[in-house]
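User: quick one - fold this with flavin-adenine dinucleotide bound?
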Amino acid sequence: MRTAVVVGAGMAGLATSGALARDGWQVTLLERGERVAAPPTALVLWPNGMRALTSIDPDGGWPAIATPVPDGGVRRPDGQWLVPPRSRAAAGNSPAVAHLEDLYDALVAGLGDVQIRTGVTVSAVRCGPGRRPAVGDGRTEYEADLVVAADGIDSPVRRALAPEATSVGSGFAAWQAVIPGFRAPVLTGDRGFGGETLGAGYRFVAIPLGERAAGRGGVYWVATAAGAARPESPATQLALLRRWFAGWHAPVGELLAATNPEDLVPQEVRELRPLPRAYGFTSGPGGVVLLGDAAHAMPHHLGQGACLAFEDAATLRSLVAGAKPGPELTAAVEAYSRARRPRTNSVVRQTRRMSAVVQARGRLALRARDAALNQLRPRMLGHAHGLASDWSPPE
Ligand SMILES: Cc1cc2nc3c(=O)[nH]c(=O)nc-3n(C[C@H](O)[C@H](O)[C@H](O)COP(=O)(O)OP(=O)(O)OC[C@H]3O[C@@H](n4cnc5c(N)ncnc54)[C@H](O)[C@@H]3O)c2cc1C
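Assistant: Sure. Structure tokens for the protein plus flavin-adenine dinucleotide:
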């Protein structure tokens, strides 16, 4: 039986482990945490992410956990439209939002026979001609035909195999929260839901979660501010957010008022620069592949990080489906790298452009940004989202 070791039980590792196990691989999933747990936030799934999940697991019930995101357009903090709601619908690119607990539950339900080892922090990788690839935590070595590094932006596996790719700060910090339904303000109609609001170096997005979501009708919001991550306590950070976003159009203030410090998930936004020169490294009869944020961590402004991770998983699964360990599997490892490098590179480029636009600061830059968004709205946003969403699973 073909064997695989997957490092990291985030979304990328869970999706890949389940996909390989369903195709008959014997999979061991290694996770440094004591349990597999979703952060208490939500995720926007663009059509490419949804297609990838469906291709990985057609019975995963993905549409049932994802609620369509209403098209809320783009506004200025005073509520004036920069991009009215219709352009995204016109582009036919409607995303959906899922509570991460629901998404993790569905991914874990799809793991089948995968052996999960928690509390294992991988610190070393073996990869080279003549020997099966392996990873280890200093106590145990885990050897397999295929090693999948899905261990996030600080991946020690990537650092060993592609040291040129370093993790750098993107210049801003993000805060996410889900306000559960029973505590969320009742918000209706034309109140900026599903859209984003752009200020000078600040951004706020609010999306209602469906009734089926773990938040039970709650609201997901994500705020971004230029600068480094804040060292203060969650309560102080929440107070800062309320101050920074004071006076923004409804429902921004109401949502921040309804948020408790323990709802807050603060994060420094980081990315890989440059991307690794390759995502696949052959070793003996198989090799090591990089997947998800371990391969292409990027800022979140296009909401594509996890969607691309699901694309990675669907592509890998398809390429290794019939490959026997030996020349077939090593060829599949190389084909994975060839297939994923250009695709992720172009989405990362688009994301960086979008980041520069939405996080613009300074009077002149803001004026230029707002004018561009006004005039080029279908091209600018539609093109970026279209490019990112325009992907089909490999045959
Ligand atoms: C504010 C924000 C909003 C976002 N919104 C969206 C969105 O709407 N849509 C979207 O598609 N993407 C979004 N993203 C991006 C998305 O969250 C990431 O791309 C995604 O979480 C990456 O998943 P991953 O499994 O590759 O990595 P991770 O989530 O980092 O998971 C890595 C896993 O590996 C484990 N691990 C790490 N090191 C080791 C080790 N040495 N040994 C063993 N285990 C290890 C970790 O504990 C973890 O479980 C957003 C990101 C941010 C910051």
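One thing worth noting: Residues 7-13, 30-33, 43-44, 49, 120-122, 150-152, 156, 174, 176, 222, 267, 269, 292-293, 300, 303-307, 309 surround flavin-adenine dinucleotide (CB under 6 Å).
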